[in-house]
Amino acid sequence: MSFAVTTIIFAFLLFTFMYFLFKLFLHSKQKTIIHEKPPGPPTLPIIGNLHILGTLPHRTLQSLSKKYGPIMSLQLGQVPAIVISSSKAAESFLKTHDIVFASRPKIQGSELMSYGSKGMAFCEYGPYWRSVRKFCTLKLLSASKVEMSGPIRKEELSILVNTLKKAALVGEVVNVSEVVENLIEDIVYKLMFGRSKYEQFDLKSLVQEGLALIGAFNLADYVPWLGIFDLQGLTKSCKKVSKALDEVLEVILTEHEQAANVNKTQKDFVDILLSIMHQTIDIEGEQNLVIDRTNIKAILLDMIVAAIDTSATSIEWALSELLRHPRVMKKLQDEIQNEVGNKRMVNEKDLKKLNYLDMVVDETLRLYPVAPLLVPRESRESTTIDGYFIKEKTRLIVNAWAIGRDPNVWSENAKEFYPERFVEKKMNYLGQEFESIPFGSGRRRCPGIQLGLITVKLVIAQFIHCFNWELPHNISPSNLNMEEKFGLTIPRAQHLHAIPSYRLNDAKLE
Ligand code: HEM
Ligand SMILES: *[C@@H]1O[C@H](CO)[C@@H](O)[C@H](O)[C@H]1NC(C)=O
Ligand SMILES: *[C@@H]1O[C@H](CO)[C@@H](O)[C@H](O)[C@H]1NC(C)=O
């Protein structure tokens, strides 16, 4: 063979080799760029990272994010998950890419308790959810509806203030947690069912149990074949709570159906929901859906669950922090005193003028976002964000608790209760700010923000205006226990107790 031919063959082979090498290199490089998951802790077979979550997952996830970053991968059994722990990442996922993450995963808790997730909060993204959300936002939760329900809050609070006045006279220690939870339950009863409490049901406890169950990391959701054994006993509990809740809802609906032809001056939530019974929801060209009794029960249940515990928990945390910080308590009391005087109770019109109250509430929600991991979301399609590839049906967990306590955003005193940090920074929770997201953000943001905020603000203002509060004698402000329990929400682990003394000058309350 001539030298020239050898050279040509050699060059050809070399070229081919280089070509494949180049392609391989390019390909694998593309592959790593597109298919790289966010960093995360090492996983075990079968359970992935489920074993590391512990009893307070929001705290565990916060410390893990310090190691793996604000966008972190977790493997929850067979379910891939992304955990978001900074406001910048939250903006990227809940604003820029909101539409991709606007769905909810199907979890056993809501499947069993919320009639196959037919309500609003756990419903998958789509035309049904959109219609339900639109209806509820417009007919139940709009600003004018919230304003119209003012007399209910006023009346229930007056009753409570009178009760507390009696306790104050004898210097009694009041179970503040109990009093606040019962108050909110009474308000919800009036608003949603148009009546006072049923003595035969303990709806509040059922809802609290339900929330703990829905928030739990349930093996059945992550390792379905292990779920059959119900090792945590959650399936059994869900079924039990679900049955009890259904009985309550049946009684409520039946009562309203029987009273339907009586003229009512003010329609409650159930009346309004029943008005869409048998209506067809326009599912935009797809199969139409007729609203039935199950849909109505599911929607009503979601509203009850979302309303009954959230406001009460926020108020309990706020009052706890006020008791720990006499300076803040005094400043708030002075503000209300200046606006309202000491001859009457606070009314809802006064709230607009109480700036320091707004700051106290913003600070409470920053440190104690009622749903510390919001409500889980699920990606509807595969996508790439900040160079990371995120598969379809990935669970999105937003650590609102960690975001509110991020020292890079809230400075070194991030863990401290210091309402003055909001002097220059008014929060409106409308989805433009991500430094503190107690109501979530984007399409799935809480639709009850106005109702929640007005309730929380009015109750705190009234408590602080009508009474001076002291901790029981064996507890000092610095050693009040501030531990939390974890469920879908984070209530206080220990109930709050305090001693009121009445401070207004009037003989009668208006
Ligand atoms: C202080 C009070 C409240 C807080 C802190 C709060 C917080 C939240 C949070 C964090 C979410 C999840 C948002 C997300 O996934 O991005 C949510 C959803 C929801 N909230 Fe609230 N909430 C409060 C009061 C209320 C009230 C009074 C109602 C109604 C009566 C309500 C109804 C709902 C509903 C129906 C959803 C589900 C929305 C959906 O999935 O489309 N909330 N809330
Ligand atoms: C305080 O109230 C809570 C909630 O209603 C209740 O579970 C608890 O037993 C009460 N604590 C005391 C000491 O009565
Ligand atoms: C309800 O009230 C309206 C007017 O107030 C009256 O015309 C109507 O007949 C009443 N309906 C019933 C069922 O009582």
TrEMBL record:
Keyword tags: Heme, Iron, Membrane, Metal-binding, Monooxygenase, Oxidoreductase, Transmembrane, Transmembrane helix
Gene3D superfamilies: Cytochrome P450
Primary location: membrane
Co-factor(s): heme
Gene Ontology cellular-component terms listed: membrane
Binding positions (heme): C446
Membrane spanning residue stretches: 6-26
PANTHER family in alphabetical order: CYTOCHROME P450 (PTHR47943:SF9), CYTOCHROME P450 93A3-LIKE (PTHR47943)
Similarity-based family: Belongs to the cytochrome P450 family.
Name of this chain's protein: Cytochrome P450 family 71 protein
Organism annotation: Medicago truncatula (Barrel medic)
